[in-house]
Amino acid sequence: MSRQNYIFTSESVSEGHPDKVCDRISDAILDALISEEPEARVACETFATTNRVVIGGEVGLSDQSRLDGYMARIPDIARACIKDIGYEQDKFHHATCEITNLLHPQSAHIAQGVDASSDKDEGAGDQGIMFGYATNETDALMPAPIQFSHAILRRLAEARKSGAEPLLRPDAKSQVSVVYQNGKPMGVRSVVLSTQHADDRQSSEDIREIVEPYIREVLPEGWLMDDTEWWVNPTGTFVIGGPDGDAGLTGRKIIVDTYGGAAPHGGGAFSGKDPTKVDRSAAYAARYLAKNVVAAGMAERCTIQLSYAIGVSKPLSIYADMHGTGEIDAAAIERAIPKVMDLTPRGIRTHLQLNKPIYERTAAYGHFGRAPEADGGFSWERTDLAEALAKEV
Q: Which of 98, 204, 221, 322 has a C-alpha 20 to 30 A away from that of 106?
């Protein structure tokens, strides 16, 4: 029997964290290419350090001769991301940092296994396993620790960008330890918040005075207890931040991007990858399926695993786990899933409308637990499949 009383912790990082700067640039480049050609193939990696951004990877277009025109836009896309995040430091400034673009055409050997032809369906862009998870412990059907770690940083970013808190700077990390009783989140044991700030004369106490009202605003009423521990800028001064303070790289925050460690992760990062890459699209599909299982009332918690082989269109396996909370047999869920959703790479893209420029917005504050948007953003957060799943089981 699973434990019912425990403390679980998850962390998040802000859009100004060095790794998230890189995720943002990679996804902005993906969006730019998909805007021009919805079926563009993109695998874009970004590295950032003091006064320098390096972009590399592979790009495939239906007419590769057009690639040079797109490549000329890459530095401006990167600078726009850095500017919007808010970096205007002497050693990392959107206008002055050096941008090196090393993107090149996609390997023809990869393309031959992935592209559709007259005699075969489009195959998966790589082998791998992908997991989706949902739990009814929050309205977003997400684990509470990661959901509120994200919420804290999003709120602080809003306050910084609006001008309400001009002394805050872009780089920040949060961590929330949630107390569970009888398997349900009941309160916060500790809050950790480290945020870059403007003046080295500001103490930890000064920063706590700024951030505490926003933290209290986003956490559920009653969750902050008399004995909740607060650790705000526990090392003291945090003025040097962003890629000047620590190098960043696309794809290094995969647990932050997903469920905060509350569920398994297949290992593949999301940002910079077009949706033919099942690392991304199938992970979105697995979340969509798990969320709809929970939304349909078939379980309080649900994990879905999908597996793929490069060049093979259909998933090799579908696995469901209700963690002892299911109203329906897990095997029945596994049989129902392929009846209600085509899980080939093209089927996923069609069902979730993934061939759209909707990815830059996913690069910070989590790919899951967000509200679906009118233009197709976060389509995998819809619960429109719940009724169909319920009928099939």
A: 98
Per annotation, catalytic residue among 24, 41, 94, 253 = 253
CA–CA separation, 297 and 328 (whole Å): 9
Is the separation of the CB atoms in 232 and 172 below 8 Å? no
What average pLDDT score do residues 262-269 get?
Answer: 97
253 classed as catalytic: yes
pLDDT at 119: 46
For the question of residue 17 being annotated catalytic, the response is yes
Among 95, 86, 91, CA closest to 20:
86
Spatial neighbors of 31 by CB under 8 A, at least 6 apart, are: 357, 358, 359, 360
User: pLDDT of 206-220, one tens digit each?
Assistant: 999 999 999 999 999
314 catalytic per annotation: no
Q: How many CB atoms lie within 10 A of CB 250?
A: 29
- Asked if 45 is an active-site residue, the reply is yes
Q: Phi then psi for 174, rounded to 5 degrees?
A: -130, 160
Known catalytic residue at 200: no
